[in-house]
Amino acid sequence: MSSSDTPALSIIIPALNEAHSIGPTLDAVSHLSGWVEVIVVDGGSDDGTREIASVHGAMVIASEGGRGVQMHKGACAAQGEALWFLHADTVVPADGAHLIVKTLHDRRVVAGNFNICFNGHGRPARFMTWLYPQLRRLGLCYGDSAIFVRRESYELVGGFRSFPIFEDLDLLRELRNVGRIVHVPATVVTSSRRFEGRSFVITFTRWVVMQLLYWLGVSPRRLGRFYAPQCESRGELKTGTSGIF
User: Fold this and answer.
1) Contact 63, 43 (CB under 8 A)
2) What is the DSSP annotation of 107-133?
């Protein structure tokens, strides 16, 4: 897929104060086969995230905050022929890079994603692990399922836009206009921290409402004005959202 002087795959990880999570993610990435470029795009961390990424051999880029902004900046700096966007708390399978390269040998395929398992032991984590395959049957997939995309296709549609929310759905909708999006039958494991320890029913209901408004045509920028105060009320850092929460 790639020439001898170009990495087959660039992994792009947006981060903001992820010192407690990004180490295992980068450890897993280090066990991938083949020539893989790793880029951590930092949105202003003050907890050692950048230092941990550097120790693990990643290229670290400074960026304004916001997941869409950070991922697009990483994509612009990447050299790989394919781009793999990971959350900072997601652990990938050892054969993940190989599966992506193999999948993209089919020129009709422009992008894809993975199975996802949430690592919590409570009911919310089990429910979300069950829910994602059901959503996939409806044609829905989200950024926390480790989206990958052919570089030329990413550039063709303009990449991630600087939306505060649903930037992943926006990109995938554009990509469907230029080729196939496929599902890779392998699993990434991600943290359930976003919905553990607080009212899951309220959080999930809010997401359903926002999702419906998005599909009815409400701008992600407008929805983001509602999302941001909710993050502040929970004491969370606002890096944008990619996935259900």
Assistant:
1) yes
2) TTEEEEEEEEEE---SHHHHHHHHHHH
Q: Is the pTM of this model over 0.85?
A: yes
Q: Residue 242 has which token pair? A: 């990619």
Structure tokens of 147? Answer: 């989206």
pLDDT digits (tens, 9 = 90+) for 140-162: 889 999 999 999 999 999 999 99
Amino acid at 156: L
pLDDT digits (tens, 9 = 90+) for 54-104: 999 999 999 998 999 999 999 999 999 999 999 999 999 999 999 999 999
Cβ atoms 119, 125 nearer than 8 A: yes
Burial state string for 201-226 with b = 16 or more CB within 10 A and e = fewer than 16: eebbeebeebbebbeeeeebeebbee
9-196 to CATH, choices 2.40.37.10, 3.90.550.10, 3.20.20.30, 3.40.50.2020: 3.90.550.10
Alpha carbon 238 to its chain's center: 15
Quote the CA–CA distance of 189 and 144 in Å, as a whole number: 9
Closest CA to 60 of 49, 46, 72, 47: 49
Q: Is 29 helix (H, G, I), strand (E, B) or coil?
A: helix
